[in-house]
Protein 1
Amino acid sequence: MHPGVRQAVDGTFTLRTVPSAGARHALETYLPVNRVEDVPPGLYRYLALEHRLAEESRDPGIKRRVAAGCLNQPHILANAVTFLWTAVPDRMTWRYGERGYRYLHLDAGHVCQNLYLAASGVGCGVCAIAAFDDAAMNRLLGIDGERQFPIYAATVGKKP
Ligand SMILES: Cc1cc2nc3c(=O)[nH]c(=O)nc-3n(C[C@H](O)[C@H](O)[C@H](O)COP(=O)(O)O)c2cc1C
């Protein structure tokens, strides 16, 4: 699988696998891991520039907390991993003002669609998720819901 960052330009912005308005890339990726070979269950964050995972916690109950935060959608308990995307609006709005909030949501759609494509290439299925409780997700991720807020999510699992 390709690393997320294809090129860092002048140390000021990055070109990635996914497009982003003005190459702002204002989204972060958190990964509550449930059943993934060689990765213990827990909460991880994807460090795009380093193309590696940072461990946030080894909470084996993470899938139940994520499922509860997503209105108890049962596929979250059964999947391999959930992708939780947050937005850091300052990275977009310093350049585009309020219109930046629109771009954050468009960017999130591109990111999730790319997950659908990448997953199908390795025999996995994806289900996008936008039904979640913002406050529960903020607590789970330790974010304030304003300077960083949950924007989109998706479950991933092997196809039978
Ligand atoms: C913006 C968006 C939000 C969605 N949120 C959820 C969700 O919270 N839970 C869920 O099970 N599916 C969710 N879905 C998946 C849709 O229900 C699904 O794509 C649709 O039923 C069509 O099924 P298909 O993708 O298998 O063709 C979402 C899809 C999109 C695009």
Note: The first strand starts at residue 5 and ends at 9.
Protein 2
Amino acid sequence: MANFFKATNKKQTLGQQININIERLDHNGCGVGQYQNKPVFVEGTLLHESVLAKIFEKKGKYSRAKLIEVTDQSEHRVDAECAHFKVCGGCDLQHLNFDQHLTFKQEKVAQLYTRHNINAQLPWQPSIESSPWHYRRKARIGVQYNKAGQATIGFRQRATNQLTAIKHCPVLVAPLKDIFSQLKAVIQQLTIHSAIGHVEVVVTEQTTLIVRQLKAMNKADKQRWHDAAKKYNWQVVIDNGDNVTPLFEITELQYYLPNHIEIKFEPKDFIQVNHDVNVKMIEQAMQWLALKPTDKVLDLFCGLGNFTLPLAQQVHSVVGVEGLQVMVDKAKDNALTNKINNCSFYQADLNADWSSALWNKAGFDKVLLDPARAGAYQALEQLLKLSIPSILYISCDPSSLARDSELILAQGYKMEKISIMEMFPQTKHIETMVLFSR
Ligand SMILES: C[S@@+](CC[C@H](N)C(=O)[O-])C[C@H]1O[C@@H](n2cnc3c(N)ncnc32)[C@H](O)[C@@H]1O
């Protein structure tokens, strides 16, 4: 086999133009075909398309080629909405008709499950949908300077660390429509050069900017931020790497969930980026868990209490566990604000040994876990010892989800329901909910 690859390898040369049929999309949404028995990855192509592409990277087992022309195009190909598509690394799927995105995502999850030997028919439920555009309420906007001190303001280009200048980003919520030109106007005027690393933006009832300031600000630059804040109706917070300090008094940040639940947060705290999908996700989680007034529920990776507080309104009690003490404090505060007193919050590194933690007791009826992209393997190894009858897993990374599901199923659980949630439309990112029971 090795000799075979060697032999065929010689026939592919850098810069060579090849005609290729796209036979599958990888989990990043990149088209893959075979050329001389070797996979060739061609970005911007779709399943069943024939394309002309130019090889720009040759590795032992695969090559990468740049799309030159689609010679036979998919019925699902559409023109990308955004002028920056293909260059900007933010969106991957704009050339695929939106009605196909969920199908693509569902197939990717199914393929990853197959890789983990989970071959049975998956109990798919209807996906949670999103509006295709203007859904993102939080983003990090990069700032880079050239030698002349001119700033590029935008997002990272595909597969590089360089920024591409952005004019408009159609996935950001409406109040951020002109954010790039507005930021450019302020940043170019600052007297201290190369002072800004990036700017995070969060939209709730206000638009808040968290400005990563790399050099101490002088009075004149402070005034420029003040003036811009007034003009554009921003709240500005300065992050100097050690402290996050409001430039002037700001209104507390919060978002609302059904039943008048108010979730307060600090500008840099994790919040789910797509508000509408977050609300639908919480509703579905509560429905799937078939909550009873007598239930005792555990909420792992609970953050600010985004799931904990709505759950607590319907059950006997909820224990929320989170790694960051600041989030735990905020979650406790959120419970108080909402006058919800049947939940308690604890700090713990869930990837470490928590066998002696106070909250680690038998008797939970249901557990919800919502880990970061790395998943929850170490947490699950311990959690599974509690034999909790229902496990609801919210995942933002299907690879770690498939790996963790294998562990859960090996302990005698059955997968009851699974669905995709369109948390990040136009991108390859996949959010999934799975319910297991035993
Ligand atoms: C995807 S967020 C979910 C937060 C919350 N459930 C929500 O819906 O807003 C993951 C959370 O896990 C926390 N986390 C990450 N690693 C952790 C660890 N090793 N132990 C405990 N918590 C952790 C993060 O601080 C973050 O709040």
Note: The pocket of S-adenosylmethionine is lined by residues 270, 272, 301-304, 306-307, 322-324, 327, 349-351, 370-372, 396 (CB under 6 Å).
Protein 3
Amino acid sequence: MQIVKEWYNEKIGKKVVENLEKNEFCAKYFKNREEAIDYIKKLLKNYHSIGFGGSMTVLQDLMIDKLAENMGKEILNHNRPEFSMEKKLEIRKKQLTCDLFITSTNAITKDGKIVNIDGVGNRVSAMIFGPKKVLIICGINKVTKDVHSALNRIKEIAAPMNAKRLNAKTPCAETGVCVDCKSTGRICRVTVIMDKKPKLSDIEVLIIGENLGF
Ligand code: SF4
């Protein structure tokens, strides 16, 4: 059955790549994380300061921050509990002008649109404009039919799980269900849909044929 899954993921992944390219993004498909990491390693050689959005795909599944650290890169990762709020804010601002910003995305549609909802906004800001290059890494589990289903995916899966991960004081962090809350801890505050690559930005998207992040 694995071979059928791989076949399906490749068919869908390559179609998304094709449509991302039509939307002027640079895009590539990788069968698995090992192949993607080999490619990322080569890419990292060209950049010094590396910024990271708060992405479980990038930091936990692929551990690219550790990879970059071992290569002697300047790491701009605010996702460390020992950092003060001031320090985290300073790092978030530096990410906006780093050499390479690496993040995942909440969803990508089959027709090549990139959909995200942020609480602070630093991740989507850096994705759109500022860094010399942006690398967006997306597991096949985050590919959705269209923008409507992308937004549903975020509210039904990604946001409740992120709220739980961040210990946010929101109803979804208790029940796992979005109620479009009005709480002060709400993490869904900024919605960004990239229909096409922003004009002045260099954005590359890697689709990986595995389930990564959430
Ligand atoms: S709107 Fe509120 S309840 Fe819904 S996913 Fe976002 S934080 Fe959770």
Note: The helical segments are 2-22, 33-44, 56-61, 64-70, 85-95, 122-128, 147-165, 171-175.
Protein 4
Amino acid sequence: MICVNNLAFSYSKIPFIENTSFEVKSGEIFGFLGPSGAGKSTLQKILTGLLPGFSGAVSVNDTKIGRHTGTFYEQIGVAFEFPSLYEKLTATENLRFFASLYPTHRDIPSLLGMVGLERDANKKVSDFSKGMKTRINFIKALLHSPRVLFLDEPTSGLDPSNARVVKNIVLEEKAKGTTIILTTHNMYDATELCDRVAFIVDGKIKALDTPHNLIMTRGASNVRYTFVENGTEEYREIPMDRTSTDETLADLVRHDRLMSIHSGEPTLNDVFVEITGRHLV
Ligand SMILES: Nc1ncnc2c1ncn2[C@@H]1O[C@H](COP(=O)(O)OP(=O)(O)OP(=O)(O)O)[C@@H](O)[C@H]1O
Ligand SMILES: [Mg+2]
């Protein structure tokens, strides 16, 4: 669905994105995961035809970016990281305006209802909270049932229950067959939602795989156990594959002295740090 071949781009004389190639399959949720300033939004802007001046070949839904026309925007939906809405118009007026740009569109009251904004339909966007703006910005991208959805930090600034609502809608869109590009620095969102994730740092893709493969093949699972020694609580952490040979653990088990034992798989953040040497936040 998306093909990027040998992409290069810079904002200044210093090269930023270089030698970047990847593909996104139809119906996949593909994540750009990286810290602030990594180049996630830049990549999204290139893929959506908003940032000219790149070299290499980029195509989205069989459209070559650079030669795209207005009809390209009928097939893609974009939620920018900063809500792009008319502040003086109400929620419904905003959605009606953007809907008028497309040949057909989804029912506006039901879209508002999906993100819990039905009671705010006639309120001016200037009176919306940050999270309300994020939610209306999100449903704006779904208005015309696009084949490809670009979501830049769709849960940013949302409370946990609204973030859950948005993530469920993202999964519903995937179930319908929509291809989704999701930009995030949230490892939990990336782990839960994405079929594959690209780790991005300084404009470069440092790793690309399924969250499961990244976690299981790159990081070691650990076991942490606690026990009392000379009246004080002690703990030990060992790699999962050393539990059978760890003498302290064997002794504690033999004498029923184990207080607690937990296993912990590395998180996507641990793997991100291991591969890139950088933290996500
Ligand atoms: N219009 C611009 N002109 C010059 N430099 C820019 C421009 N937009 C972004 N940059 C620079 O490009 C780099 C990547 O920015 P980008 O917005 O793509 O990062 P990001 O990964 O989306 O970060 P965040 O998580 O904070 O949204 C940053 O160093 C930024 O300063
Ligand atoms: Mg960004």
Note: The longest helix spans residues 160-175.
